[in-house]
Amino acid sequence: MLSDLIALVRLHEMEFSLADDPALTPDRAEVEMRRCRAEIDPALLARYEQLKRRHASGALVEAENGICSGCRVTLPRTSAARLKHGPASCDHCGRIIFDPDSVYHFQY
Length: 108
Ligand SMILES: [Zn+2]
What we know:
single chain, alpha+beta, Helix Hairpins, 4-stranded mixed β-sheet, 4 strands, 11% strand, binds zinc ion
């Protein structure tokens, strides 16, 4: 679901200090990460945590023009189409991929 994905992207940004938000102190980040974890589907969150141990650069990656930005392999057309409705898995590296266009217009 898209709301799961939005919470997951936010969690990922905070874990990797990618959130460009000077007001986000470590204490606030901790609270917000806990809130994100509570919003994400438990199965998706478990997969994310498992993948995170395998991929130091992160378990969640963007699709860029039909390519997995984690491993640079072209996604099958069916996976690319599925991204409009929520996250998918890369068949090659297993990372969770998402379509940035479906997420970044959303205001947190
Ligand atoms: Zn991949």
